[in-house]
Amino acid sequence: MLSALLLAAAASQPVPFDAARWTLADPEARAMTYLGRPSLFLDNGVALLRDSSFGDGTIEFDVALHGHPSFAGVVFRAASDRDYELAYLRPHLSRRADALQYTPVDNGAAAWQLYSGAGFTAAAELPLNRWVHVKLVASGYTARLFVDGASEPQLTMTSLKRPWARGMVGLWGGLGGANFSSFVVTPADTVAPATRPLDAPPARTTLTTWELSPAYETASVSPDALPAARGGASWTRITAEASGLVNISQYRASVRSAAGTAKGSLDLAFARTTITSQRAQRMRLVFAYSDGLRIFVNGRIVFSGESAFQSRDPSFLGVAALGPDAVYVDLRPGDNEIVLAVSEKFGGWGFAARLEPLGPEYEPERR
Predict the structure, then answer these.
(1) Please, which residues have CB within 8 angstroms of residue 261's CB and are 6 or more apart in sequence?
(2) pTM of the model
(3) Angle (nearest 5°) at CA 55 between 52 and 59
């Protein structure tokens, strides 16, 4: 592989879009002249620059956005065409709060429904049908995105989610895509950060320790029943992010077959944790999820919900937020098992939960 220093030495020249330099994971990708320039068109996939090695530094390119809903972005620190960091533009949402978005992509799954708001989404004006300059500056676990010559970053990513590692750089287009031109990468001569900087420490009530089952398909395993007969050795112990969020795609890949997808089958995983209570008490279980959720407490189902994209109305995004949803659960003295059955169509497979104590007036009735 080319070293970062060799890439930096060649960085003043745009990388030509020829097959010898790029790996194209998009059946519609093609080099073409567009708006008077040589360009690469991406419709639904990723193009990775072969032999690139990028940890920190600057990536710049021009993009021509078309006049229809579409996505266009920059890929960095890619381990493969299924695992990378992604910052992208949504031209059909120009000037809105989520015109720009950052998401990790793990096992081929973007997680935009799990990561939204400050540090993940931002507003920007995204002009159509002309060349728009885009610059990304990455350093450690932060990155800044500048669009159309802005002097200040419109999107500052304060907590990149994938582990820091040198990887390939590239471009990404989706849902009709865009044309890209003048791609220039300038790696910085840096080393991996010693540690990942902590976000705010987890609240005392946040549930951060879980065991995760293998991935199933709802066509064959129902989310409405516990997988009691499935071996415990195959469960994986995991720790949630400080916010309480678990991005399941970091640990499990989709198992949906082509036949199952046609029938509307979803990916499914179970997450379990044990709560030890000193006495019988009622508590408030606050949760977030994407896309479907069943909650079991001591073997009894206490909640069922669906929050997939457009599942509630045409404008519903299905963004997961910890706070609006909660159920009240009765814990018994000793160990209590909480199990979440989380199903996924697309856009982010994950959950978060916290368990809040209540006052004595909420104690369960003694029987």
Answers:
(1) none
(2) 0.89
(3) 70
